[in-house]
Amino acid sequence: MLDSVTSLALSSALDGLALRQRTIANNIANINTPDYHAKVVSFEKALAKSVADGSGVSFATTERSPDPTLLNGNNVNLDSETLANIDALLRYQFAAKAVEGPVSSIRAAMKTA
To answer: Which residues form the Flagellar basal body rod protein N-terminal domain (predicted)?
Structure first.
């Protein structure tokens, strides 16, 4: 069974990854918008610190991407955004499976009881 710190950490990770996916989608949607600056989501360091501190609760932050801008002032890189989206999706699926495992075990135990 997942202890409370693990459950909270997984929940925080899922929230951060979902925000990252929404942010990437927004960046891609604005790829042709002049002077649009891509955003990046950070939460991994804060999450690791919260787990080490014993709480497991952390919050994602969104910042302006430091990537260089093009002549139109836009700095969205479709290749980078696509790779980041695939990475976020795989991480989200992994975290969701980690949450799903204990829930499935409880359901199975309830059916046999």
So the answer is: 10-36
CA atoms within a 13 Å half-sphere pointing along the CA-CB vector of 24: 19
Tell me which residue range forms the domain holding 96. 4-112
Q: Domain count of the chain? A: 1
DSSP strand E in the chain: where?
Answer: 39-42, 61-64
Chain segment 26-84, per-residue pLDDT in tens: 999 999 999 999 999 999 999 999 999 999 999 999 999 999 999 999 999 999 999 99
Query: Bridge partners of 58?
Result: none
Three-state SS at 14: helix
Whole-model pTM? 0.85
